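Task: sequence in, structure out. Protein: Tc1-like transposase DDE domain-containing protein.
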Amino acid sequence: MEENAKFLVDLFVAALNTNEYKACCVGKKVVIVTNNAPAHSQMETLAREQLVMVSSTATSL
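Result:
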């Protein structure tokens, strides 16, 4: 579960750092859609916690 959450955070951060995102989407909301399996809600919670940790230590996203 922890590994899946880290993967989701890494995917999100990687997407924010792409030239495509910077060219069209800066300042817009980004949505990551996951399957509605029961385990995913736990993974999404962990991912949010990790993303908060990443964003608090990053100079910019």
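The longest helix spans residues 38-57.
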